[in-house]
Write a structure and sequence with these properties.
Elements (H helix, E strand, L loop, with lengths): L4 H27 L5 H18 L4 H19 L4 H15 L2 H4 L11 H8 L6 E5 L5 H9 L4 E6 L2 H14 L3 E5 L12 E4 L6 H11 L5 E5 L10 E3 L8 E5 L1
Parallel strand pairs: 1-2, 1-4, 2-3, 4-5
Antiparallel strand pairs: 5-7, 6-7
Helix pairs in contact: 1-2, 2-3
């Protein structure tokens, strides 16, 4: 059975806390050494973050590991009512949903991609565009305002962003279609341009699906993340303030 990265990270966090507690107990017993709780949790978090980096977890895992236990400790010191923690849990579930499985966190793309994607779509007479993991739909709404005759679609697996997309579509009266679920349900052959801003882990599966389904002349776009198996047809750089946009012409 394959163990998810999230489970490994949690086990790593617990291991560093256990080792840290045992080490601190020995230091206190033989040398009288004391350490405040917040510094203890930060030290364990630093050890877990370093271990995550050594084990080549994605960079955000090190950030989570660093502040995980100390954040819990500080939250407990505030003596907040239990229902606030429950609401926070529900909010995180609705926002991140299956991030533990897909390893694709919620992170919206930058506005810098709007102009180059608009130029690319202008190459097609009636472009069909899909945003895989569309988040709150910002890119789709920006493009729809410029190309009202094009066909725009976004798919999102997390309930809260999907609900916000649908609500924005109604309020803006935008000609954008939103689907709820995993991108595997899509047929990439139905689109001229497929855009994604996911994570390095997701890119091999994206390329497998794109190379088998997309039609000649169509374009696959990936913001920030490269496909190791296939050299891009073009790369658009945006300077030091934003990641590049990679494109593969099928």
């Amino acid at each position: 059975m394959k163990i998810s990265v999230g489970a490994k990270a949690f086990a790593l966090q617990l291991s560093t806390l256990l080792v840290g507690f045992l080490l601190l107990s020995l230091l206190h017993r033989f040398f009288g050494f004391r350490l405040s709780p917040i510094f203890f949790f930060l030290s364990c978090g630093l050890a877990a973050a370093l271990a995550s980096w050594i084990l080549r977890f994605d960079w955000w895992w090190s950030l989570i590991q660093l502040f995980f236990s100390s954040s819990i400790y500080l939250a407990l010191q505030l003596s907040l009512p239990p229902w606030l923690y429950f609401l926070a849990l529900i909010f995180c579930l609705l926002l991140f949903w299956s991030t533990h499985r897909t390893q694709v966190p919620y992170y919206p793309s930058s506005d810098v991609v709007v102009d180059p994607i608009h130029s690319l779509l202008s190459e097609f007479e009636k472009p069909r565009f899909v945003d895989v993991g569309c988040g709150l739909g910002g890119l789709l709404f920006a493009l729809e305002r410029r190309l009202p005759l094009a066909r725009f679609c976004g798919i999102e697996i997390a309930p809260l962003p999907y609900f916000i997309c649908v609500l924005r579509r109604i309020l803006l009266r935008a000609n954008v279609k939103f689907l709820f679920g995993a991108y595997e349900r899509l047929n990439f052959a139905e689109y001229d341009v497929v855009f994604c801003y996911l994570s390095p882990v997701a890119m091999p599966a994206i390329w497998t699906k794109a190379s088998s389904e997309m039609t000649p002349g169509s374009v696959l776009l990936s913001y920030e993340f490269i496909i190791a198996e296939k050299e891009p047809s073009f790369v658009l750089e945006f300077g030091a303030d934003a990641p590049p946009l990679y494109g593969w012409r099928i």
